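Figure S7 source data.
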Amino acid sequence: MKYYTFKNNDKIPMLGLGTWKSSTGDVYGAASKAIKLGYRHIDCAFIYENEAEIGLAIKDAISDGTVTREELWITSKLWNNRHGKDNVIGALKNTLEDLQLDYLDLYLIHWPVPLKEQFNFPMSPKHFYSLEERPVSNTWQGMEMAVEQGLTKHIGVSNFSVKKLKNLVENSSIKPEVNQIESQPYLQQKEMLEFCKLEDILLTAYSPLGSKDRPATMKAKDEPDLMTDPVIVEIAKSLNASPAQILSAWAVGRGTAVIPKSVNPERLKQNLQTTEIELSMDALEKINKLDKHYRFLNGRFWAVPGSGYTYENLWDE
Ligand code: A2P
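Tokens for the predicted adenosine-2'-5'-diphosphate complex:
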């Protein structure tokens, strides 16, 4: 496994296990198998509703001697209805309880979209807080308290635009160390990558394979298929690899961490091997040309009319 190193010398494995959409019933087996295969980084979130089962897999892997807690990198995320300085510690403690851990390696603000405490998902514009009522900088103070209390080693954000990330960097005592966003050849996020390199912030690429197992309500009818893109397929053939492996290798090769999701033992194994694949300059150039700023996860579910949240102000574009 290859790693990126943070300022304090902590090391995050470049490739982790994605767990969004891994259902209970499947995720215990997937996480256990992944750890046995050599995965040391698991990406979780409260809202995936599977942290308790992942926690059990981690506990069992530690107690049977497969791995130690120190060897693992566990990330989780603060859900939208727990924004606000005074809500963060409680939410994080719930997640730690589910995961059966004393601390996280990384805790992220999941979306810059605060919701009223009673609602996991908004059904009306009344279910939102505006960013004036619940500023990200206020939530961030809670995130900083979590570091001070030893509940997480690192803090960061997810689904933040360059503008929002810049604003947070300028208004924080502890700088965000990670932004986790969708990144794949159709959405290459070049401006974000440059900004993060300058600021020493690690980008983690989610939906690196195009997240085909998303619920139908989150899919566009005419969405492109990354895994069968002729350029990706051709490069895969030339390297005797699979398209999924090329996609993860591309992500790691450009300096992002990557978290492909799988619950299938063979695919878990295949995905883990991708950090060993090096793409030629020619292959990289061909993939660079695929960029079309296409989001598989476009966040339009937050753009409830009357809420003040729109696609444009979510991504600042
Ligand atoms: P499965 O869990 O059955 O393996 P993303 O990481 O972009 O969200 O994509 C996840 C989707 O990609 C899931 O449907 C997952 O299915 C599938 N997948 C994961 N790894 C591979 C692979 N190596 N080859 C083909 N499909 C894969």
